Amino acid sequence: MLRLGVHVSIAGKIYEAVDRANALKINTMQIFSRSPREWRRGSIAKEDIEEFRKRVKQSRIRPVFVHIPYLANLASPFNKLFYESIKTYIADIREAEALGAQYLVTHMGSHKKSGERRGLKRLIRGINRILESTEDTGVTILLENTSGSGSWLGYKFIHQAEVISSVAQKSRVGLCVDTCHAYCAGYDIASEEGLEMMLSEIDSLIGPRKIKLIHLNDTKDKLSSHYDRHEHIGKGRIGLEGFARIVNHPKLRDVPFILETPKRKEGEDRRNVEAVRRLVSL
Q: Which of 9, 17, 159, 223 stands 20 to 30 A from 192 (CA)?
């Protein structure tokens, strides 16, 4: 069965996100557990967590993904930000566990011109500390690929492969593949050959079962542009034919798809969900 969802707003009370997901008739979802552009100001109220879990249990939504806020940077060469980021990840993993979420999605961070090698070493060191401090939880960290702008890590899958092969708790680290980011990083997944090449690269470097999530986004920008501007499904450079191959690919049959497409107007999430459903088994 197709696992299809969207990134859902937590405006109001966090448990209202479940109602929004149910209204879209989706069976998986992604949220921020708090503001994505601020450091933690407090914790979610216990009764709100309980209500969130209750509503998820009553729905058909599974799994639940939590995306970590953007400020954390485990690849930073600056100690203050590095150690603050570790604290943030630990707190967010424990919060995700409390909410009943199975996965924490994260970008791999920016080395801030200190070099990819140093950035990857910092990232591996940070993830090892985080996993060790949260080994009593069942939450898996998913490393998301990036488009390759600036000093961001993760624009080629050898970065994720190095992290996964180097951490102590390998079973608790997986991969989130963003289609917009992959295309803009130079993987021509709009074509059949390009999609097969990317999946073969992941197979050989990391393993097919490490893909735990696909962020299904079209892109406004050209191949290898290194930009990160999401577009509605079929309205960008990847196109409907490209997405039909992705959602029907046998290697991705059991992988959840989460849409992070634009939300400029009312009803756009519903239209994108319906666009994907029409592509299934084409």
A: 159
228: annotated active-site residue: yes
Catalytic residue among 215, 237, 245, 269: 215
Candidates 20, 67, 111, 237; catalytic one: 67
Q: Is 83 a catalytic residue?
A: no
| Strand pairing category for 257-259 and 4-7 | parallel
Distance, CA of 96 to CA of 253 (rounded, Å): 26
Encode pLDDT of 215-241 as tens digits: 999 999 999 999 999 999 999 999 999
For the chain, the straight-line distance linking the first and the last C-alpha, in angstroms and rounded, comes to 15
Question: Burial of 281 by CB count in 10 Å (0-12 exposed, 13-18 middle, 19+ buried)?
Answer: exposed
Q: pLDDT digit string (tens) for 45-91?
A: 999 999 999 999 999 999 999 999 989 999 999 999 999 999 999 99
